[in-house]
Amino acid sequence: AAARERFSGDPEGIEALAAFETAAMALTSYVARCRDAVSVFADNHPERACRMVPVRTALDSAVVCRAQGFRAALQCVLIVNSLLWTLGMRLVGLGRLDQVLTPFYVADVTSGALDEGTAEGLLKDFLRLLHRDYLAKSDALPGDTGQVITLSGSDAKGCDRTTPLTLLLLRSEE
User: Fold this and answer.
1) Can you tell me the distance from the alpha carbon of 13 to that of 7, in angstroms, rounded to the nearest whole number?
2) Are 96 and 153 in contact (CB under 8 A)?
3) pLDDT in tens, 61-116
């Protein structure tokens, strides 16, 4: 209601808000379907059910609040990326992914919830999932999906922004 009041008298603002609400509802529905699929998988594979707990936790936090941890942050990126593809957006730039994910990585490593080897495995899986179905995502050149990940760079003062996660992402791509 407060957002609608803010845009009262601004038809473009109201249209943008309606588009955002539609996308948010679609994202919520998509996450619910993913959570249901994870539950079915866990029910059908009891020996692997314990491995699904972090996935369920990540899915639960993906829409309702800020990602809680590195795994959840990766899941959020995958969900949003998937939604963008579903909506027909062909060029999906994920930006300076190392800068986005570094706070989650550092917090989890510092707390002992994650080690470098586990993070590298998660990143390899993450990159494989981003690349999945690349033929369907490629319009002209097989493999060119338009998905761009930018790493490192410099800040406004020209300082190098390379982090340990930057190097881990590069290593994970090998």
Assistant:
1) 5
2) yes
3) 666 546 688 998 898 888 877 777 766 666 777 888 899 899 999 999 999 999 99
What pLDDT band is residue 48 in, cutting at 50, 70 and 90? confident
Angle at 125 between CA 105 and CA 154, to 5 degrees: 45
Question: Quick count: other Cβ atoms within 10 Å of Cβ 137?
Answer: 18
pLDDT for 28 equals: 77
| Secondary element (H or E) of residue 58 | helix 49-64
Distance from chain centroid for Cα 43: 25
Tokens 């407060």 sit on residue: 2
Q: Which amino acid, one-letter code, is at 6?
A: R
Whole-number Å distance between alpha carbons of 2 and 22 = 17
The DSSP 8-state label assigned to residue 46 in this structure reads G
Q: DSSP strand E in the chain: where?
A: 93-96, 148-150
Q: Which two tokens stand for residue 133?
A: 């179905």
